[in-house]
Amino acid sequence: MSSSDRQRFSLMGRIVGVAVGVFSLIAAMTSAGKVSAAQSQATEPDATMRVVNASPGAPDFDVIVDGAPLFTGVSFGTATEYAPISAGDHQIQFIPAGEGVDAAVIDEEQGFDSGQAYILGAVDNLADIKLEQYSVDLDAVDEGKARVRAINVAPDTEGLNVSVKGGDELFGGLDFNDESDYEDEDPGVYDLDIGRDDEQPLASATGVEFLEGHVHDLFILGSSEGTEFTILSLVTATSPSCSEVLGVGDPEDACVRVVNADAGADELDFLVNESPIATGVAFGTASEFAAIPAGDDREFAVVPVGGESGNSIADETQSLDPGQAYLVVLAGRTDDEDLLIKEVDLTPLPEGQTRVRMIQASQDTDEGSLVVTDGDELFGGVSYKDSTDYQTVDSGTYDLQFKADDEVLVRATAVELKENTTNELVLIGSQEDNSLELVLLESPAAAREGTVSTPVAGTPGAGEPVGTPEVVGTPVS
After folding, report:
1. Is residue 167 classed exposed, middle or buried when 0-12, 13-18 and 19+ CB atoms within 10 A define those classes?
2. DSSP string of 66-115?
3. pLDDT > 50? residue 41
4. Which of 90, 353, 432, 468 has the most CB atoms in a 10 Å sphere around its CB?
5. The CATH number of domain 145-238, selected from 2.60.40, 2.40.50, 3.40.1000, 3.30.70
6. Rounded-to-integer distance, Cα 46 and Cα 468, Å
7. Mean pLDDT computed over 366-376
8. Residue 372 bridge partners (DSSP)
């Protein structure tokens, strides 16, 4: 590790040490549970959809989904933002703005997969108008790149190319309604030409910005005569770096927060490569996220306050990916600890939804299940050191129980899972001495968003500050 890295670690350790906060108790728990008003079961992540009017000569459209208005007044050459839509089949209607459903020019059923993003395009001349569905690739974009494709929606055209002005061809040979494969491109602002092989450009689009870590769908628009070309660039946020979401560090950093779930432990320091990242962390407290230089084989260690890594009570080696968030949990009990390092999913969610998982850090607690009171099981067969997969649920307030067989070990009422957040429910303490607690750690996860970057580029906003974790459940007496 370089001396500059050591300095960065030490500086962050001093800052993070101040940020450590004691969990606050939300409410006393009793053995009499009450079902919350929120939905009582896990659900699939919604899909999201946006609409583009790419039909030259078409009127402004109102878009109706299953009989209810979703978008209004979508004019030619414009696109909407994303809106959530449940997975499954839905009836989609495009109606001239302000008219009744009997005037629909498009009336089709479309299917949507859970968690996927879609662009629905009204394409072709008005007399031949049709609905096309384009699936957006939401996989993480390679570091330092933007993901780009071109879609030709100019009626009656063949063999269109998109090239950098005075430079290389990006996409070629696109007939009407062809879509290219996605390609990785360098971020930046581009002037683009639309043309055909060995011909002068038919049109140009200036100032088209490719944003790092984003997906760009370039719609080639044209008039009913196949002229007057332009490019409409639709931008989708996929997996922004943790630094962007959390407001810490740089995109090449990882983001790390720590939790002391060592039952009965004194205050402890958490080190990475012998430098402190959080100091004086008592049992039942956690740090905020801090930026850590990414790299292979980072050596995590937990030591008594002021100690060195050679005196660690637990240690683990972990490679840290740029832009990835991690949760470090010291689990177990004094003289028999384990250090758990888990990736945290901060990717965007559809509006109105949240993700949650459970981490079991109580060494002497029986295998159990986390359930919604009088509702469905969220996580089953959870044993010590287990970290479940994330579940997506509708945001709201939940009553939860952690049960072993039919015995309720911990009850948590009125647990608020806010929309567009990632939540970790950590079981700490001891079943033996009836000190179990269920702790909620909340992190922001942006709503899935889309912008139109022609003629003006859109830039996603920074994440909200990270909240302080809370104790949401205590043992049933």
Report:
1. exposed
2. TTEEEEEEE-TT-B---EEE-SEEEEEEEEETT--GGG-SEEEEEEE-TT
3. no
4. 353
5. 2.60.40
6. 28
7. 94
8. 400
Residue 453 or residue 432, greater confidence: 432
State how far the Cα of 393 lies from the Cα of 395, in Å rounded to an integer. Answer: 6
pLDDT digits (tens, 9 = 90+) for 208-255: 999 888 999 999 998 756 568 899 999 998 877 899 899 999 988 999
CA 23 from chain center: how many Å?
Answer: 25
- Supply the DSSP symbol for 412: E
Residue 198: exposed, middle, or buried by beta-carbon count in 10 A (0-12, 13-18, 19+)?
A: exposed
How do residues 160-184 score in pLDDT, each as one tens digit?
999 999 889 999 999 999 999 999 9
Residues 446, 421: contact at Cβ < 8 Å? Answer: no
Query: Residue range 404-411: average pLDDT?
Result: 93
Which positions ≥6 away from 225 have C-beta within 8 Å?
none
In terms of residues, how long is the chain? 477
Q: Where are the domains of the chain?
A: 3-44+241-475, 145-238
Whether 426 contacts 261, CB under 8 Å:
yes
Is the separation of the CB atoms in 235 and 448 below 8 Å?
no
CA distance 175 to 153: 9
Q: Is the bond preceding residue 455 a cis peptide, omega within 30 degrees?
A: yes
Span 104-123, pLDDT tens digits: 999 999 999 998 999 999 99
Question: Residue for token digits 């390092």?
Answer: 341
Using the predicted structure, report yes or no on whether residue 26 has a pLDDT greater than 50.
Answer: no
Structure tokens at 453: 């970057």
Q: Which amino acid is at 188?
A: G
pLDDT value, residue 151: 98
- 249 contact partners, CB below 8 Å, separation of at least 6: 242, 243, 255, 290, 291, 292
Cβ proximity of 258 and 278 under 8 Å: yes
Alpha-carbon gap, residue 339 to 52, rounded angstroms:
49
